[in-house]
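Today's session is about reading a structure prediction critically. Students often jump straight to the picture, but the first step is always the sequence itself: look for stretches that repeat, for charged clusters, for runs of hydrophobic residues. Only then move on to the predicted structure, which in these notes is written as discrete structure tokens rather than atom positions. Here is the chain we will use throughout the hour.
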Amino acid sequence: MTLPTTHTERPRRARMPLSIWIVAVVLPLLVGLVAVAVQLAWLPELPEQIVVHWGPDGPDGYGPVWSTTVLTASVILGLVVMFAAILSIPRGAAPTAIHKFLAVTSLAVSLLLGVGVTATLGIQRGLDDLSQVPDITPWMLVAFLAALVAGVVAWFLLPKAVTPVTDPQEAAPLRLSPGERSVWIADTRLSGSAFVVIMLTVGLALVATVFAVVVSDGQGWPVLFVPLLLLVVCGAGIAWRVRVDPAGITVRSRPFGWPRTSIPASEIAAVQTSQVDPLAEFGGWGWRWAPGRNFGVISRGGEAIEVTRRDGRRFTVTVDDAETGAALLAAYAGGSPAA
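Below is the predicted structure for this chain, in token form.
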């Protein structure tokens, strides 16, 4: 027989401290505004064509003077929106170390971009011959140090990270009649908010690469494969099918069928259920690996089946009605006949 699927209540959405939002959103936006304002003030002093890329031998890419300002504004804004969307998703205790890391990264990347790109314009003011553009390396080091110092300071000023409370429950084996064979099948997919975040990331990468190709007169066209690859990888992690049967547990991507993992019942030492916070415990969604947690298919926050193999490796999959699936898997792993 096929077992029914039920739904349980998920943890409430986390309430991030105001300081997290200041570091992740407010300060990066201020950095972007200041950088754009300075760049606009310098436009009258700059040539119509400027250096937009430096290679090992010096300047090797050129573009219109407005290109770096547009790039600075759009990328910083896109990054801030992306980090804000990610930080609005978590449920449970906050802020965890991952939440702090995301907030600090938002500020550091904005500073690195804002200072670095603005410096590339500043060294070109008043030049008629672009071959005389100074080396950008010292200014990139300044940008990197500014981002590093700001990130470290922000980390220690933010509230102390909390540890997610996980209370795995050993699954009680489902009682099966002699000769009875049951199959439990459930589908799990990314939550709407996680899907939006991933699409924002892919969209930001696509816009940035297209912009780079256009500005460079098509010379950088190979970078277009980066967002396309991201799209394929993300597409393979949107929806999953979980199946528990006498052979064990199988989790595979839909509709591609890959990636997939199968764990034979004979290799399972323990089956538990738990509540999972994707960001705090696995750093995101999809096919994930995390220290101490090993691999997992994390489509959203909430209930999950946790499987521990006999060699100590662990596998986690978030899915509705995890209790029923875990109970049936525990029955087969505990020695119920498989044939």
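Discussion point for the tutorial: The first helix runs from residue 18 to 42.
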